[in-house]
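Hello everyone,

My group is preparing for a crystallization screen and wants a predicted model to guide construct design. The compound we'll soak is zinc ion. Before spending weeks at the bench, it would help to have a computed complex in hand. I've included the protein sequence and the ligand's SMILES below. Output in structure-token form would be ideal because that's what our pipeline reads.
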Amino acid sequence: MGASYAADIGAVYSTPSMIRVFGTIFAGLLGLAFGSFLNVCVSRWPEGESVVHPHSHCRSCGRTLAWWENVPLVSWLALRGHCRSCGAGISWRYPLVELAVGWLWAVVAWRSLADIAGPASDDFLWAVAISAVSQMILLWLLVALAILDFEHLWLPNKITIPGMLMGFAVTLLYAAVNSKHVFAFYGALELEGRSMWHVIWQRLIAILVAAGLILLIRWVYWLIRRREGVGLGDAKLMAMLAAWLGLGGALLSFTIGVVLGAAAALFLLFAPSTRKDHGRWAQTKLPLGAFLCVGGIVSSLWGERMIHAYLRWAGF
Ligand SMILES: [Zn+2]
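Reply:
Good plan to model first. Here are the tokens for the complex, ready for your pipeline.
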């Protein structure tokens, strides 16, 4: 009886589902912490400040924060969104970004840990680990770019260019471990069974086409309106998305971004403040890059499913 009891306990407590649940919770908490760090980065980079020095302080009165005022999510709720000494409001962007990164990382972990259920080779485990970690990095970069573009209409080269190189390097890493593994990562499937040279060419062309699409729109806009409508930062962001997600993933990100941007423009058009002053609506600059980033996040996590669903619907 003792032995079978132990076996039953073992079946309940050591199954992959427990690893999956705890792994997901751990990734979510880690995501909250990295979301908190992201908040520091996107607050300080535009001011040209260092992200490590000085310690976290109130952006209004400059007081250095106590450790308990730095706990992701919890501190903002405990302080009810206000600085303890000067009473200045702390933007809802802080808890929102922390929640977003925490949730996105939890989704990646939940999926990746489903892939390793059951017996798996060391090779496969490494492939899943590389896939999960690189996808978490991509999502972190896209949230950072989305906030910077939304708040400052700024897509810094120091993120988009290294981001593009990193995406290209990760793609080559996939191609090197290759084929037998199905990655839980959009853009990896099209690499299956391809030679290294094929992968390199395919990604280089994807980068050029994705950036070229934005440059073409920029040029047409210039011909019609004689002013800058779409920035070069958007072209570099599209190149970065193509490096990570392939041409299909970049075009899907673009489509989602444009739809969201159009929806935001319509919303602004009918908002009470712009109804009085239509001239201002025409001058409003929409953060296209922020919408492209949201498109990139959606394509990275759900792109493959969306494209399959579309192909089924279209009868392929
Ligand atoms: Zn303060």
